[in-house]
Design a protein that fits this description.
heterodimer; A: 262 residues; alpha+beta; 2 domains; 6-stranded antiparallel sheet; 3-stranded antiparallel sheet; 2 helices; 19 strands; 30% strand; elongated; B: 243 residues; 5-stranded antiparallel sheet; 29% strand; FlgE/F/G-like (chain B)
Chain lengths: 262, 243
């Protein structure tokens, strides 16, 4: 009897985690480059009282066994790296990756982090940096006198200097991708860190070998769909509710058992 | 007289077992690929017959029966989410041997193998399905027949196992997995299935049905309790009359 209480409690805990994830997705509905998370559930161990096909007490074969489950457990929360909506900003330093790949940025500790957020700025040295000031890797420096910055689909950065008529190449944006992007660790600030599960970063040129192309003047929005999250929220809330009802019913049954002897 | 007490008490015990099964279904309402369990009671006629033959009159859950009906299929847009519409199971390689699942949310491990969230490998016709070139993961496609296409080339076919119509050949081991019962060795039955890429099969638990079962079960429990109390009262009366 108590087992049923724990099973239903496991159900409530799982739905709680589901709601937590939905809330984080919804909170980031306007975060550029944000990728939504999804909780994966699995059923818990089964207590097998009789196995189907075993010998029945009478000598026959049991057509069905008895297996009693113990509830549910989250097995992982994975990021869904689907393309987010693309909005036009006309800002020459706003970049979007259409397809697979991450921008590489250098962290203060010297390690490389990965991001889909392409809202770049220039720092005082003219380097292209993220909103948090992390420089793009490999470094790209735009001279202060440049009048026009153009970034092609393959990631070549060119500038026009005053008086010149032909653009001058100042750098090349390279992208990184992972065999298992869902295995990346989210560090917050729109950044990801590779793990053993994600595999090593594979770098390449935009537009080649399965990498997405880079487009200038656009930003990738979050891939969170509000309607979808709302629907999930309703499902999670109702599932939470019915699990709590299951606890109440079990509790009531315990009361009945206790009242057998008045 | 006492026999009646015992049979009502056994009724209460079996209702508790059924309750646990229903609550497990409810807890797994959001588990992808979950198939609900249905408690099977000994039928009323069997009990009646046994009673007429003056044998036991004990009620019990005779077995659990897995309802393998199709769960709803939800669009996720994720390349590595696969749903089976129709019969069959994905075959997985686990450290404890081959297991089967309907939960199709796969990821790639760092060697390019398709794995479940628990880290079990999805099997193709030639062992674990592996994407040969790490650079080509974005061109990964699965045809409705289960052929895995990378770029333009068919690299393997997903092993979908369809089992004979008897649903009793598989038992659950948790982690969304099923295993083949010891007595069944039949496999490779031709089945009707379609693999849908970018979709996930949800749990086939119908929350309304479970709620109804929960209430019905609760009332059964209450009724069995009343039956015990009634018999207790009768016994009490006999005892007091005798004094």
């Amino acid at each position: 009897m108590l087992r049923a209480l724990w099973t239903a409690a496991a159900g409530m805990k799982a739905q709680q985690l589901f709601i937590d994830t939905i809330a984080n997705n919804l909170a980031n509905v306007n975060t550029t480059g944000f990728k939504k998370s999804r909780v994966e559930f699995q059923d818990l161990l089964y207590q097998t009282i009789n196995i189907a096909g075993g010998k029945a007490p009478g000598g026959g074969q049991l057509p069905v066994g008895i297996q009693i489950g113990h509830g549910v457990q989250p097995v992982g929360i994975g990021k869904l790296f689907t393309q987010g909506e693309i909005t036009e900003t006309q800002n020459p330093l706003d970049l979007v990756i259409e397809g697979d790949g991450f921008f590489q940025v250098l962290q203060p500790d010297g390690s490389v982090a990965y991001t889909r957020d392409g809202a770049f700025k220039l720092d005082k040295d003219g380097r292209m940096v993220t909103a948090n000031g992390l420089p793009l890797e490999p470094e790209i420096i735009i001279p202060p006198e440049a009048t026009n910055i153009s970034i092609s689909h393959d990631g070549t950065v060119s500038i026009l200097l005053p008086g010149d008529t032909t653009p001058q190449e100042v750098g090349q944006i390279t992208l990184a991708k992972f065999i298992n992007p869902a295995g990346l660790q989210s560090m917050g600030y729109n950044l990801y860190k590779p793990t053993d599960a994600s595999g090593e970063a594979i770098t390449g040129t935009p537009g080649l070998e399965g990498f997405g192309i880079v487009s200038q003047g656009f930003l990738e929005m979050s891939n969170v769909q509000v309607v979808e999250e709302m629907a999930n929220m309703i499902i999670a809330q109702r599932a939470y509710e019915i699990n709590s009802k299951a606890i109440q019913t079990t509790d009531e049954m315990l009361r009945i058992a206790n009242n057998l002897r008045r | 007289m006492l026999e009646g007490l015992f049979s009502a008490a056994s009724g209460m015990v079996s209702v508790i077992q059924a309750q646990q099964i229903i609550i497990n279904n409810i807890a797994n309402v959001a588990t992808p690929g979950f198939k609900k369990d249905i408690p099977v009671y000994r039928s009323f006629s069997t009990i009646l017959q046994k009673k007429l033959e003056r044998r036991e009159s004990i009620s019990e859950v005779e077995g659990t029966f897995v309802d393998f009906s199709q769960g709803e299929i939800e669009s996720t847009g994720r390349r590595l989410d696969l749903a089976i519409r129709g019969e069959g199971f994905f075959a997985l390689l686990t450290p404890q041997g081959i297991a089967y699942t309907r939960a199709g949310s796969f990821t790639l491990d760092n060697k390019g193998r398709l794995t479940t969230p628990q880290g079990y490998f999805l099997l193709g016709t030639r062992g674990p399905l592996t994407i040969p070139s790490l650079r080509e993961t974005s061109q990964f496609k699965v045809s409705p027949e289960g052929e895995v296409i990378v770029g333009e080339k068919v690299i393997d076919r997903i092993r979908v196992e369809v089992f004979p119509a008897t649903p009793f050949s598989l038992y659950k081991v948790g982690e969304n997995l099923f295993k083949l019962g010891a007595k069944t060795s039949m496999r490779g039955v031709k089945g009707n299935y379609l693999i849908k890429q970018g979709y996930l099969e949800l749990s086939n638990v119908d929350i309304v049905q479970e709620m109804v079962d929960l209430i019905a079960n609760f009332r059964l429990y209450e009724a069995a309790q009343k039956a015990i109390q009634l018999q207790d009262a009768t016994l009490g009366k006999i005892c007091s009359e005798l004094q």
